[in-house]
Amino acid sequence: MNARHSLACTIAALSLVALHARADSDRDRERDRDRDRSTTVDCAAGETVARALRHGDERKSLTILVSGTCSEHVVINRSDIKLAPAAAGGTISGPDPAIDVIRVTGSRVTIDGITVTGGRNGVTADGAAGLIVQNALVQGTGRNGITYAHGASGIVDGATVTGNARDGVAIDAAQGTVINSQINQNARFGIGAFNGGSARIGVDNFNNAGGNVISANASNGIHIVFGSTALIAMNQVIGNGTSADPAALKVGVNITNATADFVGGNTISGNTGTGVNIIRSSANFGDTNFGITTVNTITGNGNSISQGGIFAFNGSSIALRDVVISNNAAFGLSLSLKSSGQIASSTIQNNTAIPGPVPGTLTAGDGIRLVFGSGLLAATPNSSVTGNAGFGLLCTDGESSVIGTVALGISGNTVGGVACTGF
Fold first, then answer.
1. Has residue 6 got a pLDDT over 70?
2. Which of 145, 183, 203, 205 is 20 to 30 A from 55 (CA-CA)?
3. SS3 for the chain, per residue?
């Protein structure tokens, strides 16, 4: 009896010790979770961001402060991570041009104020939800500055993305918002949406304005293609098309097999080629649903090869409201190859003649040109088509036609007013 009693007491004591040990361990873990999860990486001392990511409770958020320049490639496969500089100049530089500098697969990651350079892509969200790149400088990478891919989502806010070997920001089968940023001098496109991507460019997820400056990119400022969609508002798309390659497309905004809503507040000017090029696509200019200006200004674009302010081609459909199209080369607006358009409350003026295909001749700068079976519907409020170097409205073939010419407000064009039949 005493032996049994002694054994029971021993078991109870051991259980109590185990319980206390387990409780103490739980308190330790809870205490660790409650700590400020922030760590500083001293790059000059050989510390790395990759090593810092292996520490701490992965269920909790972690802020990593970068001091100096870390030469490494970082994969962030955990969630709720923030990278920020410990002091001005915190940099991550990728030494291998075949590997992305920062690759994110975790959710809710923020890159804040860091300089990213070298490597392949600067920052890539690979299926990652909620990647924020803000106040960052992403430059001199071997491919794209920032890429959202494979269903990823996120926001680029207040960033400078410059001098990258391909695109500034690429949204590829993903969702991306680009606001308040400088996207310039990239070797192909400024901002591109590909393969069903969804882009908000200059307007945030709450429909607040946050325009970008998209300038001096070698090919197109904005490039929306392959089933993608874009909301475009409050941007300065200027001086794009700097490539010396004669075969390169050099337009302000290119929309191909895609859909775009030019909400308003965009200035598309001084681009080497066409201001807005639309192929097998639909585009709306002037959207009253956002509570911001509906005026888009398209001016001073085009050359003898890539002409005009707005060119819609191959079955495209466009609607224009409150658009100012002026001083573009060869024409203001052209619809070609069975494209259709509606226009109201717009101004098309002072579009200029350019050298023609025969030396010593000019191609007149028509205000509106309809080509190869295209049609235009003009509606009130009336537009104004004035001061153009060619016709106010020209149909180049008997299959193209227009309805509502009175609403176009055509007057004072150099070659003539209307050279077009009705429907």
1. no
2. 145
3. CHHHHHHHHHHHHHHHHHHHHHHHHHHHHHHHHHCCCEEEEEHHHCCCHHHHCCCCCCCCCEEEEEECEEECCEEECCCCEEEEECCCCCEEEECCCCCCCEEECCCCCEEECCEEEECCCCEEEECCCCEEEECCEEECCCCCCEEEECCCEEEEECCEEECCCCCCEEEECCEEEEECCEEECCCCCCEEEECCCEEEECECCCCCECCCEEECCCCCCEEEECCCEEEEECCEEECCCCCCCCCCCCCCEEEECCEEEEEECCEEECCCCCCEEEECCEEEECCHHHCCCCCEEEECCCCCCCCCCEEEECCCEEEEECEEEECCECEEEEEECCCEEEEECCEEECCECEECCCCCCEECCEEEEEECCCEEEECCCCCEEECCCCEEEEECCCCCEEECHHHHCEECCCCEEEECEEC
